[in-house]
Amino acid sequence: MIKKIFKAFKIITLILLVLIAIGFIFEHISRLYFDSKYPDDSEFVKIDGRKIHYKKEGKGNCTIVFESGLGGDYLHWQEIQKKLSKNHTTIAYDKAGIMWSDPSEKITLRRYADDLKSLLEQTNCPKPYILVGHSFGGITPRLFIKENAKDLAGIVFVDVSHPKQLEKSSSELKKSVQPPPRLLLSFLNEIGVIRILYSNVPFTTAVPKEHWFNKNVKTYFYRIFDGMMTELENDKKLMTEASEINDFGSVPLTIITGKYPNGVEGGRDKKLEKEYLAVHNSLQKDLLHLSSNSKQIFAQKSGHYVTLQEPDLICNEIKRLAPE
């Protein structure tokens, strides 16, 4: 009996190793193919020896600057950028370690501010700027906003993170939104499991599985993963730094808040979901204190991904802020 069990164990182990090898080969052949779509050199600037990728489109007397959320890349804004570039200069970029941009060991708001300022200067983006941030993109540009307030025609924060959201959340809520260990996710990413997963289920149910956003995440998750996890592992540090910057003066500020008509995506515990929305809504209102010239708009049909569900709402607000 013991010999039979041992034999079965060896067979199962062998099958698993073969599947892992096949998955690894499949994943890395896929990466070779998608890496061949590397952007043109004209879409990069050098900052402190690092290459930062950007997409600049349109012409106008001001620049719409898009700041992505946790692990977000320039493609997140492509629909909104296309619409606005008809009449405005627009620029979206990959933060350090995300997508096509080189990583950086410095994970501070100082580095985020310096990267963005240098990018805008090197790409000759006309002032004033309108900064549009989504999710964690309400944290990372705060120092840039503080230091460049005179060059800002407006700010649009789209369902952004608040520096106090972790300390305002219960331990149960914080635990419920924590991802699996980085080592495990990295292993699954390397053997193609993540690619297969997102081929069958959408990254977000805010839009259909065949939506370009879900396709892009499936395709390029391997180029997003390390940068996303680095930001996530430093979220407390960055939020602490951001909490010290709580005054944007009189720069026009619009807070766009999702109403979450279908609840919180992935929420299974109604009690935690209720807590999350209570904390979120309270802190969204608190963001109004950042500027003496602020207003709040609710995205009635959207959850967190207002950028995908109600892009016109964002575009209209940006157009309102843009100088004639």
SSE blueprint:
Blueprint (H helix, E strand, L loop, with lengths): L1 H34 L8 E4 L2 E8 L5 E5 L10 H7 L4 E5 L15 H14 L6 E6 L7 H6 L4 E7 L6 H4 L2 H6 L5 H9 L2 H8 L11 H22 L1 H9 L9 E6 L11 H17 L7 E6 L6 H4 L1 H11 L3
Parallel strand pairs: 3-4, 3-5, 5-6, 6-7, 7-8
Antiparallel strand pairs: 1-2, 2-4
Would you mind describing this structure in some detail?
The protein is globular. With 324 residues, it is α/β, with parallel strands linked by helices. Helix content is 47%, strand content 15%. Strand 1 and strand 2 form a beta hairpin. Helix 2 packs across helix 13, helix 7 packs antiparallel against helix 9 and helix 8 crosses helix 9. The mean pLDDT is 93. Strands 1-2-4-3-5-6-7-8 form an eight-stranded mixed sheet, sandwiched between helices. It starts with a helix and ends with a helix. It has two domains: 37 residues; 247 residues, Rossmann fold, CATH 3.40.50.1820.
Task: List the main descriptive attributes of the protein structure presented here.
8 strands, single chain, globular
